[in-house]
Write a structure and sequence with these properties.
The structure is a single chain. Helices cover 35% and strands 23% of the residues. By secondary structure, it is α/β, with parallel strands linked by helices. The protein folds into two domains: 255 residues, Spore Coat Polysaccharide Biosynthesis Protein SpsA, Chain A (Alpha-Beta Complex), CATH 3.90.550.10; 31 residues, no CATH class. A nine-stranded mixed beta sheet has the order 5-4-1-6-11-8-12-10-9. β9 and β10 form a beta hairpin. α3 packs antiparallel against α4.
Length: 296
């Protein structure tokens, strides 16, 4: 796909990753491997597959491994070339050649809204996609391209939604919605961050993909800290949804394969799901898993 010149991608990666300690004591959680690639590479590849070739990663302290991963490593590449191991050489070089990747520090982790605000100077007047590394979207399923096209058509903010068990909605932002003429696309009339099940407006949860116009930066500038004492992107989106004269907020309901790497159990499930689907690993893993499960 040719590059979508008008869009940029922003990937917040400044979180502390405390749920994965001690592994994340000296390594960013975004660098934890999902099979044989760090989680953040899947996210960058998703942006590139949607046609975006300008990517900004928001980092915090002790995050140098992230920039190192997307840099070239001449010594390693020369060693692989001498060995004639072109397959591994291509894998190493792929992360370097993926996109035009930039980095900016967040400083203090003051919430997702604050992280997005740190992208203002780089994004400028361009519309942009925000991709969170906790949610990996299967490359075989379309989501981001649909969101980009919807933003281009409407000028609205676009968020990704997914139906979840109502008992789990307290773990997400929940959306109040109205149907549109297009199946799978809804008009968002309100958002609630991590509501109790009885207070949730629906079981449609906000997952980690957003497409935004640069006007959101002005809203984030004046957004007061919300839940958890952090500047919440949800609060800015709520203001956009409530604006009677603006383009509003739309949601794309995703029904494809999503891998949650946000906690330890789901991270392990994500690795298993991705590995068993791979041509090079699945044939050996599937029968082993059946034997293993039978013995539990």
């Amino acid at each position: 796909m040719s590059a979508v010149k008008s869009f940029k991608a922003v990937i917040p990666a400044a979180g502390l990753g405390t749920r994965f300690l001690p592994a994340t004591k000296a390594m960013p959680k975004e660098m934890l491997p999902v099979v044989d690639k760090p989680a953040i590479q899947y996210v960058v590849e998703e942006a590139v597959q949607a046609g975006i070739d300008d990517v900004l990663i928001i980092i915090g302290r002790n995050k140098n491994n992230l920039s190192n991963h997307f840099d070239s490593v001449p010594e390693l590449e020369l060693n692989l070339l001498k060995k004639g191991d072109r397959e591994k050489l291509e894998k190493v070089q792929r992360s370097t050649d993926l996109a035009d990747i930039h980095f900016v520090r967040q400083g203090e982790p003051k919430g997702l809204g604050h992280a997005v605000l740190r992208a203002r100077a780089h994004v400028g007047d361009h519309p942009f996609a925000v991709l969170l590394g906790d949610d990996l979207i299967d490359e075989r399923d379309e989501l981001l391209t649909t969101m980009l096209a919807l933003h281009e058509r409407t000028g609205a903010a676009v968020i990704a939604l997914m139906e979840v068990d109502p008992d789990h909605i307290h773990m997400y932002g929940a959306a109040a919605v109205e149907p549109t003429e297009t199946d799978g696309i809804v008009k968002v009339t309100g958002l609630v961050e991590k509501p109790k099940a009885e207070d949730a407006p629906s079981n449609l949860a906000v997952i980690g993909r957003y497409v935004l116009a640069p006007t959101v930066f002005d809203i984030l500038e004046r957004t007061e800290p919300g839940k958890g004492g952090e500047i919440q992107l949800t609060d800015a989106l709520q203001e956009l949804a409530a604006h009677p004269e603006g383009p509003g907020v739309y949601g794309v309901v995703f029904r494809g394969r999503r891998y949650d790497t946000g906690d330890r159990v789901d991270y392990i499930k994500a690795i298993v799901q991705i590995a068993v689907d791979r041509d090079d690993l699945g044939p050996d893993l599937r029968p082993w898993f059946k034997e293993f499960a039978a013995g539990l």
